[in-house]
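User: Show me an example of a complex going from sequences to structure tokens.

Assistant: Sure. Here are the input components:
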Amino acid sequence: MQSTKQYTLAELTDGLEIDIKGDPHCLISGVSTIQSAQPGHITFLTNAHYRKHLPETKASAVILSTNEASDCRVNAIISRNPYFIYAKIAERFSTVQTTQPGIHTSSVIGDNADIHPTASVAAHCVVGANVRIGAGVVIGPGCYIGDDVTIDNNTILDARVTIYSRVTIGKRVRLASGVVIGCDGFGFANQHGQWHKVPQLGSVEIADDVDIGANTTIDRGAIENTVIEAGVKLDNLIQVGHNVKIGAHTIIAGCVAIAGSATIGKGCMIGGTTAIAGHVSIADNVICTGMTSVTKSITESGMYSSGIVGAVPNIEFRKNNARFYRLDSLMKRVKQLEQAIIKIIPVSADKLQSDE
Amino acid sequence: MQSTKQYTLAELTDGLEIDIKGDPHCLISGVSTIQSAQPGHITFLTNAHYRKHLPETKASAVILSTNEASDCRVNAIISRNPYFIYAKIAERFSTVQTTQPGIHTSSVIGDNADIHPTASVAAHCVVGANVRIGAGVVIGPGCYIGDDVTIDNNTILDARVTIYSRVTIGKRVRLASGVVIGCDGFGFANQHGQWHKVPQLGSVEIADDVDIGANTTIDRGAIENTVIEAGVKLDNLIQVGHNVKIGAHTIIAGCVAIAGSATIGKGCMIGGTTAIAGHVSIADNVICTGMTSVTKSITESGMYSSGIVGAVPNIEFRKNNARFYRLDSLMKRVKQLEQAIIKIIPVSADKLQSDE
Amino acid sequence: MQSTKQYTLAELTDGLEIDIKGDPHCLISGVSTIQSAQPGHITFLTNAHYRKHLPETKASAVILSTNEASDCRVNAIISRNPYFIYAKIAERFSTVQTTQPGIHTSSVIGDNADIHPTASVAAHCVVGANVRIGAGVVIGPGCYIGDDVTIDNNTILDARVTIYSRVTIGKRVRLASGVVIGCDGFGFANQHGQWHKVPQLGSVEIADDVDIGANTTIDRGAIENTVIEAGVKLDNLIQVGHNVKIGAHTIIAGCVAIAGSATIGKGCMIGGTTAIAGHVSIADNVICTGMTSVTKSITESGMYSSGIVGAVPNIEFRKNNARFYRLDSLMKRVKQLEQAIIKIIPVSADKLQSDE
């Protein structure tokens, strides 16, 4: 990404915990990937997958860790956390969209709404009664904000976000387009074969510094609130059921389904398409790899996974499926073999241990 | 949830099939969970997971079944269906949003639209030509309703719902924000390596008392209509393909994917993240647990599941995966053992049965 | 689907590569499914599942392949690609919505937007600065188009589509309601237990003839662009992570999750609910059946699958799960049996091969 801005390496890294190996006066005019970088670009190396591109990169500087630095033939920015350093440097090349404070004339504002003069409400929004919008908040075009919602300072709603009534949102929260927060939880009681709605009386609390990705949905609690603690990062198309609690600084990748009343600890990392059953608890600092199915509580930190993953040729897959369904028969055959062998060589019987 | 309303137990349960064990004049001012309840609250017990909280609950009353009642030290509301009774009682503490009838001046209404005077169309809606909106219907802010759509009495669309042309929606239907109904089904014909759109000529019929969750999508039929029968309850982020039929009073949890032309019977319960293949049929009263993959028709009622579920430590998972892919070799080894044994002790050969 | 239009078989098939077996003057007034067709309807047979309906169909004509034609008792339209022929014929019965060119007065248009006079912008849209909208483009109600977006000729956005800034969209693209293109990719760097946003400096390029289904989300690139090549077809509720590249004429069914930096080749077919891990590459012409988990790169064309699929009665499923977790013990028992046998009949030891 070429930019019109230009900095020396020293300027770019001012205040960051890094060592420069090379020329701190080198001019940098953009960021790039290690394989596509051109002279004047800065890039980074954090994934071993891309290490092969380091010796030939045309970048003017590479951000990397000490143990990668020896293979770096250009200026090296050495850090214990190269990706974080990259994030901070990339901010310098990012175009910040400036938004005019004030309320667009096409937007419809409810009674007693308290919108800070430094906040911005774009076109075609509908803001309910008794809403409080703090300083520096940016509400994108076409958002709907229900009655009695509170949005704290410097939070940003992109276009077409929906916030149902009584939701509270903290500071510096970012909500991408299509996000829906506070819709009714999925509660129905069956009586005589028909489903009757269970009123969803709680709401949703989103703490400070939360990011929520496009078209993600967060249900309001049945009785108490659904709670997303500070610093949580949610990707796109995630479903968060009613009464769920997600602990501070947990990060959850795309298309994860979290059923009602599940509790996820602090500092967890949940891989994409993971499914978490209702009412389970996940301890702090748990990592679930992608596609994990959490059907019972996880009480200790660590890395968890499930299922049989990995794509194989369909013909292998069909055989595997068939074998899997013959496991019971296989186990019986082994048992019979053991019984037959014991008759011949009783001396070795102690070696034939069964777990059945 | 504390409320400004207050009722005696007798008032709250008037007309419901319950027995009160305790004081029918006890005043109740809110509902709560069994573990968080305070004096003045009513709560319920339906999930064995929460039974441990019953002896110490501070609630003034608990709704529960006969066989839980003996452990209840406070007023007990005894029912064969405690969750349904809770639903009815919670309604009394629910704040019903009152909506003004009429069409907001910012909304754009097409030719020949027939909107009942008791219906409400909020701000920034676009309603197409020849739309019929019945008595008591509530259309939330920012909805789009295509041409020739019919919405029957007392149906509620939350903010930012999209209904494509010619869709019909029954009475007392509730559609959450971000729902899209009647988008084109996924039909493409390949000719010489390129995909050509197959016109999607059908539409969608939603019967009475259907609930649809946030950001769920329902495709219009290719030729005939996609049909959602009466009383169906769909959670958030569900995909319903073209030509699908979902039978009456079936309930489907979040993130389920239903491929085109699948038929689901009446009274089914489909767990979250289940995937249903195209063209399969599922009988009435089938239960699929969460994460089931339905690849063939299910012809009898009952509970179905699939795969290997449950999160295990990643190191175990890696071993399991490895073992799974050695199953074929294991089966061959057992067969060779059987053949070797038979040579030694032919008398026991009949006991060594093979399924291969 | 009955229509007010009527054509002879000869008119309907003019210019298409087919043979008519029967009466080319037969009048056709609508399309239908093979099982519901009435006289005057044309239908098609492409799925063996529906072959049983051919002998009794009441249709006036059936589009089918040569080897099905002998069972057809009505007029037959014989083609090597019956579904493509059906698509072309169905277009004749499709109602094309005519849209008035011009910008609805309620829409808000940014500075320097260049909107072609033949394009249409419906009500309640917000179009950013420096946007270029080509000839014949249709922007549905309630869309948001960010600054510096380019939309090429004859592209159609249905209602409530969101396009973030700097995205480029080709010709004849169709975007269904709720689509979000160009939202920030999911990039966060952890420093001292907290997640810091990594600026997402790239954008999204959508080439010509791409279709994208309802509520699908496509993230903008971290540095370079996320790229969707020509003729790609995406179904509903798909997540496309940042930096992903999808090759020309690839088709992807609903609810697929594609993690960041994955590359999918040309001409692939990806079944519904498939999950594709980050940074993997998939070769051209790969087919993944539904529910595949692609965790490593696929380097050769072919059909791939994974996991254990297929719903079985829950009681069987529980046994299978239990057996699976005893595989390790089973393998050890077989090894011990082999060692015991070898002591008795060393001559056959060469037949007892181990893969351990």
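The lines above are the inputs; the final block is the predicted structure for all three components together. Chain A touches chain B through 82 residues (CB under 8 Å).
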